[in-house]
Amino acid sequence: MEVSLFKADLKDAVTIHEMKVTAFMPLLEKYQDFIIHHLEVAVGGIRVVK
What is the pTM of this model? Predict the structure, then answer.
């Protein structure tokens, strides 16, 4: 198996957000922690750092 790493760009924001939702939704449902959660950040809240 080969793994490649590359910097994400703004065009990747939707895909990254979808991945976060998929990864963290089971934890949100289990613990009902709505105060501080990774799913709070909307796609518009993502910024590109160069």
Answer: 0.59
Q: 39: number of CA atoms within 13 Å, CB side?
A: 15
How far is 3 from 33, CA to CA, in rounded Å? 33
How does DSSP classify residue 39? G
What integer pLDDT is reported at residue 32 of this predicted model?
81
How far is the C-alpha of 31 from the C-alpha of 13, rounded, in Å?
26
Q: What is the DSSP letter of 31?
A: H
The whole-angstrom separation of Cα 10 and Cα 46 is 8
